Amino acid sequence: MEPSDEIRRIVERWMRAISERDSGSSLGRVSELPGATMIGTDSAEWFHGSEARAIWARQLEELDSFSVVGT
Question: I need a surface site. Which of 12, 22, 39, 57 has the fewest CB within 10 A?
Answer without folding.
Answer: 39
